[in-house]
Amino acid sequence: xxxxxxIIFMVSLLLFAAPGCRNGDRLISSGLDMDVELLRDPTxxxxxxxxxxxxxxxQRGWFQLDSHTIGVSLGERPTGGYELKVLHVKLxxxxxxxxxxxxxxxxxxxxxxxxxxxxxxxRFAQSLDDLTLRVWEYMGDDFADISAETVSAEGxxxxxxxxxxxxxxxxxxGEQTHSFIYDLGLESAFAEMLxxxxxxxxxxxxxxxxxxxxxxxxxxxxxxxxxxxxxIFIGLADGxxxxxxxxxxxxxxxxxxxxxxxxxxxxxxxxFDWYDDGDRLVITRMEPVN
Length: 290
Prior knowledge:
Blueprint: H1 2-17, E1 21-23, E2 26-28, E3 36-39, H2 47-56, E4 60-66, E5 69-74, E6 83-92, E7 95-103, E8 119-124, E9 132-137, E10 151-163, E11 166-173, E12 176-182, H3 187-192, E13 199-206, E14 212-219, H4 220-223, E15 226-238, E16 241-246, E17 249-255, E18 269-276, E19 281-288
Parallel strand pairs: 7-9, 17-19
Antiparallel strand pairs: 1-2, 3-8, 4-5, 5-8, 6-7, 10-11, 10-13, 11-12, 13-14, 15-16, 15-18, 16-17, 18-19
């Protein structure tokens, strides 16, 4: 009888002590647990939210993307193999409590030998409006709120430089020049299309320390992109310019290096995207029409 009682007692402890039940990457709601879904791939998010995630996950903390979605980030880790697990999400009156745990790679585990930024996105079925959030690590400290609003602006690009702390761009907005940190994902934009004095459209967020992080930059002229234009390829005028017949009128277009011009023959019907930068017409994408 005593042995049977001990077994029942231990099973009861396991049932009541478990922080949450899982079905794949979805938490099962019970009692005061909240119905949430865990997202590992930010590409399912709107573009501006993807941009924010790419910057905010470089810091340790939690951030809110919209009324139903938050992210939790560990910040920089030296290799792959680190993961952020959600143990439970509970609602206590108007307080949402999120408890997470970091897992680390084993000594013998083969992992990517590169810097990583582990994070998890949590999408709530219930709106978070008018609720308070607290996020903390199991047996550890609270995560700071590093939420930041994405700001859109227009300005004049003055130049980019590499420093010991990373890459920065100087952009004049109104009468004041600001420095913006940007990552490798925007490197091609500066290398291929921007010159000092260009008018640009940007999006950025400001970190808790006041640092501005650039998440998007483009020439204002490219904002008015003409997409899906049809024409007939005539040929090359020089190494950087091609001619295309558009509605019976031959037009000269500069083209980006990524366009494989060798696949086109004179007379081919093509579909392309282009914009007017004020001095020339520029093609950014072109493909044959079958």
